[in-house]
Design a protein that fits this description.
The complex is a heterodimer of chains A (318) and B (342).
Chain A lengths: L2 H35 L2 E2 L7 E2 L3 H8 L1 H32 L6 H9 L6 H11 L6 H8 L2 H11 L18 H11 L2 H12 L3 H9 L4 H29 L3 H6 L19 H11 L3 H29 L6
Antiparallel strand pairs in A: 1-2
Chain B lengths: L1 H32 L21 E3 L8 E6 L2 E7 L14 E5 L2 E5 L4 E3 L1 E3 L4 H9 L2 H32 L5 H12 L3 H14 L7 H4 L7 H12 L3 H9 L4 H12 L1 H17 L2 H6 L8 H11 L4 H21 L1 H13 L2
Antiparallel strand pairs in B: 1-7, 2-3, 2-6, 3-4, 4-5
Helix pairs in contact in B: 1-13, 2-13, 3-7, 3-10, 4-7, 10-14, 12-13
Classes of the chains: A mainly alpha (318), B alpha+beta (342).
């Protein structure tokens, strides 16, 4: 090693030292401990007690664990792709040279920076079945009467009622999905930036070939956006598996035993059940096992997306 | 030309519909926060659009309710004689009202309270009575600024090491940066909790602040990408002039990286302002709460007090919106920087 190399090594390590310390203290050490705790019975109050794989086998027999996993998978499978579609749609609409675009951009972006606690409380009211904004608007336009009228025309009983949203087992997840679409602005801005990178010449060629707006979207815009879609998809997946704050705030006391995640565990999301296990039931070992399963699921999903991306992501210059 | 007008109209219509949908909950929050409690919900028979007006009961200069008094198919505007707090009906259930200065006894069904459009800050007063807002704001700002300082300091140093110093092993370490970016917070949550508990840090701000001084993978990555774009010649020239590595960092790299540093600071501030899970776990005393946690506690205790709740939600949101308008360019640049180079 020359003197220069030695100096570089010293300086490099010196500059990187905050991260080196952080990596060991706040990431690697907790990671190992988490794996260890997942093999223990651990309540924080008393020292951990080794139980081997018992937490994992208990988990696989725990109905609520499967409910939580199922709820999270359903939520992810719908909210992430639909959210992406909405974000792309809005970005395409906003990427035109029309008057007032900057105002529209601001309007679509603003909800995404509203602090989660504030937006959760606001949406508790927006989703209120009797006095909320959504059902109020639907009632004002007589949507329920109209659907019942249609039902009668088809010889059915007019039994349609407006959704109970968070108070209904069926509608609680769609309610939370609606709320997540409201905050789609961040992804939209990323797509907008991706759209400005699409070379104009591609559209000009498409024009020469006589392509209409739909064909241009399908064969120019969408392929050129695929790298951005991949990025937002991966981020969306990881975030969605960790979905916690909204569920915690908006479903408090909705289960019959006073825990969040109701009604009937329909909004018992994975991270919420993990939180309940760690800080409500003080089953830290059990929760650690849950954390590792979550990690593996996220890793698996991310790898699957990345592996599939070779087939659908087009990089510029391909 | 004909073919080009219609797409524009359709686009405008679509945008208008979507924009209305997106702005509606937001507007509803702000408008409800300046409404009187009794006007939160549309009254029977009232037109839907009236919900969108910040209304309250009309009162005269002395604060007495103004009512419409109807008897024998004739309606006049009158004032109640007493303030709502001391207003009582007589044995027949009648209230005393003043019609053109004369006292008249009227039954409740003959009276209808008049509505006035105007801003009503009662909800804010009520919310501030319930929450030690100034204290919570102080806590939040203290945590936010500490975290921002810690993150900018540590991440820029570490990013400099990765981007500008060629040392053996840096690529291996950088793989750790990338890998830990994917690590869900839940995995390290419990061990960190018991670590901080052992250190006696629970119930203090330390668990929220101290880790920020040891680098955040995402921002290390962001700043590294930015630093790599700065021409190496600048560093080389400074080195020939005898400038130390730290001197290059301070005098060349930092001044040239203001946009990336501003983005880091802004996003970290925003994240910390809204963060809920960590303050929820580590702060135990309501004197220590951040406004996010205080707001949630308030909601939990007063589930149906929509007026004060909306007032508090507005108060938590407005600083962020103002920050957005002040730093719009940094904001949008930042999002695209994180999104496209990521």
């Amino acid at each position: 090693m020359t003197r220069g190399e030695r100096r570089n090594l010293r300086n490099g390590l010196l500059f990187a030292s905050p991260y080196l310390i952080g990596l060991f203290c706040f990431t690697l050490y907790p990671l190992c401990m988490s794996a260890y705790y997942s093999m223990c019975e651990y309540t924080v109050i008393s020292p951990p007690h080794w139980v081997g794989f018992a937490n994992y086998t208990d988990l696989f027999r725990d109905g609520r664990f499967w409910d939580a996993l199922g709820n999270t998978l359903v939520y992810t499978a719908v909210a992430v792709p639909v959210g992406l579609a909405i974000a792309v749609g809005l970005a395409v609409l906003l990427n035109q040279r029309l008057r007032g675009m900057s105002v529209y951009r601001t309007i679509f972006f603003l909800p995404s920076i509203v602090p989660i606690v504030a937006s959760a409380i606001l949406w508790l009211w927006v989703l209120n079945p009797e006095t909320g904004l959504i059902n109020g608007t639907l009632m004002a336009f007589h949507v329920d009467d109209f659907i019942n009228w249609v039902l009668v025309q088809f010889g059915r009983q007019p039994t349609f009622e407006l959704p109970g949203w968070l108070t209904s087992e069926t509608w609680s997840k769609p309610a939370l999905m609606l709320m997540s679409f409201w905050g789609i602005g961040g992804a939209m801005v990323i797509f907008l930036a991706g759209l400005t990178d699409v070379p104009d010449v591609l559209y000009e060629v498409a024009d020469l070939d006589g392509a209409g707006p739909f064909l241009k979207f399908r064969h120019v815009t969408l392929p050129m956006l695929t790298p951005t879609i991949l990025f937002n998809l991966v981020i969306g997946l990881i975030d969605s598996f960790q979905y916690f704050t909204q569920a915690y705030i908006m479903t408090s006391n909705t289960n019959s035993n006073g825990t969040p995640g109701g009604p009937m565990d329909s909004t018992l999301f994975y991270a919420l059940y993990m939180y309940m296990n760690s800080f409500l039931y003080l089953r830290m070992g059990y929760a650690s096992a849950m954390a590792w399963i979550m990690f593996i699921v996220i890793l698996g999903a991310t790898c699957a997306v990345l592996a599939s991306s070779k087939r659908w992501v087009h990089y510029h210059g391909d | 030309m004909v073919t080009r007008v219609w797409p524009r109209i359709v686009s405008h219509c679509l945008l208008l519909i979507f924009a209305t949908t997106f702005i509606a909950p937001f507007a509803w929050m702000v408008i409800s926060s300046v409404k009187h409690e009794s006007h939160m919900f549309p009254r029977p028979g009232e037109a839907m659009w009236r919900v969108w007006l910040p209304t309250s009961n009309k009162v005269d200069e002395q604060g007495r309710p103004v009512v419409t008094f109807t008897r024998d198919d004739k309606s006049v505007t009158a004032t109640k004689k007493f303030l709502p707090a001391e207003d009582k009906s007589n044995e027949q259930g009648q209230f005393t009202i003043l019609v053109n200065g004369e006292e008249v006894l009227a039954f409740p069904e003959e009276l209808e309270e008049q509505t006035a459009v105007g801003f009503h800050f009662e909800n804010y007063r009520k919310a501030f009575e319930q929450i030690d807002f100034v204290n919570n704001l102080k806590n939040t700002l203290f945590i936010c600024f500490s975290v921002v300082i810690g993150t900018v300091l540590s991440c820029s140093l570490v990013a400099y090491s990765f981007a500008r110093i060629p040392w053996r092993g840096r690529n291996t370490l950088f793989i750790f940066v990338l890998a830990t970016m994917m690590l869900p917070t839940q995995v390290t949550l419990i061990p960190l909790f018991s670590l901080y508990k052992e250190l006696g840090w629970t119930g203090t701000f330390k668990p929220l602040i101290v880790p920020a001084f040891f680098g955040t993978p995402f921002y290390i990555f962001l700043l590294r990408q930015f630093f790599m774009g700065i021409p190496q010649d600048l560093s080389a020239a400074a080195r020939i002039d005898g400038c130390s590595e730290f001197g290059i960092f301070m005098r060349i790299i930092i001044p040239l990286s203001r946009p990336a540093l501003a983005t880091t600071a802004l996003f970290m501030f925003l994240y910390q302002w809204s963060d809920f899970l960590n303050p929820l776990i580590y702060l135990q005393d309501d004197r220590q709460f951040t406004i996010a946690v205080a707001l949630q506690q308030f909601q939990n205790q007063h589930e149906m007090l929509w007026g004060p709740l909306m007032a508090m939600a507005t108060v938590v949101t407005v600083p962020i919106v103002v920050l957005f308008f002040l730093t719009q360019r940094t904001f949008i640049q930042g999002i695209t920087m994180t999104g496209l180079k990521g």
